[in-house]
Model the fold of this input.
Amino acid sequence: MTPITIARLSLAYLIPTLIGIVILSGLERGKRRLAGFEKLALGFAIGSGIVSFYLFYLGILRIRFNFWTLTAIVWLFIIWGIFIYARIRPKKLAHSYRSNIFSSKTKWKEKLLITFLVILLIWKIFFIAFNVVVSAPYFDDSVSCWNYKAKVYFHTRRIIWDRKDPDFLGGHPGRTHYPNGIPLFKSWVALWMGRWEDLPVNVNTLIFWLCLGLLFYFNLRYYLSASVAFAFTYMLLSIPLITFHAGFAYFDMVAGFYFIGGIIYLYRWIERREDFYLVLSALLFAIGLSIKEEMLAFFVLGVIPVLVIYQAAAKFRLPSLVRNTALYLSIVFVPSFPWFYAKANYRLQLGPVPATQQLEFNPKALKLLVAYFFDFGNYNILWTLLIAGFVFSFHYVIKSNLKYLLLSLVFALAFLLGAFLFVRWTFNRATLIVMPLMIYYLALIYGKLSTSRCT
Amino acid sequence: MIQGGVFRILGKEEFQLVLPPGLNIPAERNPYLRIRLRFQSPRYMRVFWQSRGGKPILSLRVIQPPFDRHFHTYWIPLAKSPEQKGKVERVGLFFGGRPGWIEIDSLDIGPFSLKEYVLSQWQEFCLPRPLNLATINFLQSPWLFNKSFASWLNIIAALILIGAAIFYFKAGDKQKIKIVSRIGFTMLVLWVVYDIRETYSQYKMVEEIYLSYVEPPPEKKTFPALGDFYRFIDLCREKIPPDSQYHFYPYPDWPYDCRIHYFLYPRRIHSDTWINIIEGEEIPYHVVYKNPRVHYDLSRRRLRYTGPEGGSFISPPGDVIALFDRNSFIFLEDR
Done:
């Protein structure tokens, strides 16, 4: 890689991150609500989503992707960024936690264990980076769906809406109905690079994996001691299938980022009732809907009921309830409205492919599920821990706000299991969307039951 | 047939392999059949044996090795119970499941040896996880004492948690906090134990890719489960202009069809499974990969397909412009 290539690659990823940070700072309105690294992680996740939406809107307007159209959005956010920077002092840009994992009270055994976990995580970064750098996209969907559609958008420099064109909506005959967030972001990267190469467009899974760790750690720090928060973050990042997917350009883990992000801030809104968190949660779900098709089901089943049930249980007045719900749903659905309109207009399928649309109970699947949970090497011992977590904490959880987190988790798992048992949906990969929430829930109940509070 | 020291047999349906008669193995010596084998398709095996004058006994255990390119070793007891007397005269193997090759590396009958058993289990445990195109859904857990390592750890975790739950629900508030902290630490240790083994799998995967794809010179590079396909892609990129269209004849279609479709884009493909050509424009290139059924007929200067139903010409005259190997080449029609 030449210095110019490295500079182009850096710009391709830094610009969306800065866009995201500007949006977050604008929403914070001068109050520090997020930690620095938390903001960085969210900045990338939100910014990459924003540029994907931007390219999609350009595509709808039949505008080609070129230097001028590509940089137009950058200028807009530079101006907004300067405006925000002038209004608030830089030190207010981020809240800081005392993030030292080791304190003077940390026992040597704990230090040793944490050091060992750090070494294991460093190895995982190397493992993911090695695969991203050395391998071309390897597995079917990463080749023929995510990267192929992105490559088509890059070469055609636009979105083609003519059904008869072989490049119609990314050109993949079986995936024209699939959301375009990831392919459009990959094409954004390639456009900044000036040519199509696998490495630059595939590095986003490594970045998302790191962002997932940052988001998770700094949010757990809100409730837990540094070492406990770190241990749970390590557990999340070391789930074998998550680490593996991060190295091979698959996006269930990325959908999991948006799902857990949306739930985390919805939960924080439940605890603090500050609109910032409600908006942030909605924004993450809005982008999540553009990542994977099934995010719609996870959102509708796992989030909307919780939002409504919480407000009803907390005796919100009707106007407030309607306002909050309308605000939330409009932020989630308005950005994707053109996409859903296009789907309806072109009669693109919504949900599983027709071959699997028949609802039919599959009794063999139960046996298979047990094997997936406990025999395969995908999840370490996570399912056993989750079951134990339910048993140990149920009496406590139902009396606290954690019951809303539990509700989201139960609804999401019910959808996942139902889809597998009745529609024969691919189970293992899809669980990665819910896994971060499973560990987050375990971490919070552990914190409550062991009183491992923030230090 | 014996190939490279390995007995290979193609099993189409259910079939039996019976060991030579007159074994005369004393049952009271607790004999074990030790077999090291590999299946090339999802098959299963059961063992049966017969004492003099007795009925054949079919072992309850169904052996279904992981479908992972590795040889696996199994120990099967040939005595029904310690009280069994007499001599085992006849031993056989029963195979079922889907058709495919079975490879038996070694087979022997002898008394149980704890040392050898532990050693063979350790070797099973250390087998690397091969990278293949199904790995994205299933990460095989290593095997240890006839169970996956993940199962063992889940069982251990469940036993500890059940034990802890009994104390937890009887304990006072302060004790509960201590119990939860200790459980948390123990579970983390179990998690780390699995992760260490997983790290080893990841290391072996990196090593496999490094040795096959990074280290070798360009003409010898291969990639796990795809072989020399990436080198073939490089050849196609070199010989087929980016604005061209091509026919593709792989054998089998998957996993090559969807990959070449991506890697050669904006060149446009026409194959049995993938089509993205612009209608009306010519398709002058024919790409053949690992397909013994399509060959170049030198006398007619055309491509000929030879299948079970007969042969036919599938192209107008032209020339092979790049030869990758005997069954992989690029053909260009005369213009």
Observations:
- DSSP finds 20 helices and no strands in chain A.
